[in-house]
Amino acid sequence: MNRPVAQFLFVLLAATLPAMAENAPSVSPKAPIINFSLPTFTNPDGYRHWLVRGSEAWMTEQNTINVKELTLSVFSGDASNRIDTMMLSPSARVQPNEQIITGDSTLRVINLHDGFEATGEGWKYTDKNKEVTLHKKVRVVLRAEFKNILK
Predict the structure, then answer these.
(1) Alpha helix locations (H) across the chain?
(2) Which of 92, 103, 117, 150 could form a disulfide with 70 if both were Cys (CB 3.0 to 4.6 A apart)?
(3) Per-residue model confidence (pLDDT) at position 8
């Protein structure tokens, strides 16, 4: 390429870059993440531990993520990669470092391992103890066989 053509292309590129930057999509810290997904893994084995998913998510403060349409899958944490529990809620607050998830709206807990379901409002899930606390309008359905319960 000869020198005048190269200079012309350089000037053209320099004139075009600012216009391209104006039309580029901007990133905002207040904009939600669409189709949010946050997996965590066990240490040191690296098996899947839990998976937080939502239709939207955004950071509200340091180490807190608001999630819309939460689906939490809690795995067995071993090589079987089996889902033990599913939790569904319209909205939740996730603290990934503490592994705590809370919400004011409803929560549906489906325990696939022990065979029960629970629903309620105003809830907290603490992963350290694998504990769900439901505060209001609690309903539990057990899918277990009770032998000789009426004796």
Answers:
(1) 3-23
(2) 92
(3) 47
Residues 24-35 have a mean pLDDT of 67
Architecture category of domain 33-142 in CATH? Sandwich (2.60)
CA angle, 72 then 110 then 143, to 5°: 165
Antiparallel, parallel or unpaired: β 83-95 and 64-75:
antiparallel
Provide the token pair at 21. 């930057």
Sort 126 into a burial class: Cβ within 10 Å, 0-12 / 13-18 / 19+.
middle
Cβ atoms of 44 and 77 closer than 8 Å: no
Q: Can you give the residue ranges of every domain in the chain?
A: 33-142
Over residues 48-58, mean pLDDT: 92
Look at the pTM and tell me if it is higher than 0.85.
Answer: no
Token digits of residue 4: 């005048």
72 near 87, Cβ under 8 Å? Answer: yes
Q: Which amino acid, one-letter code, is at 97?
A: N
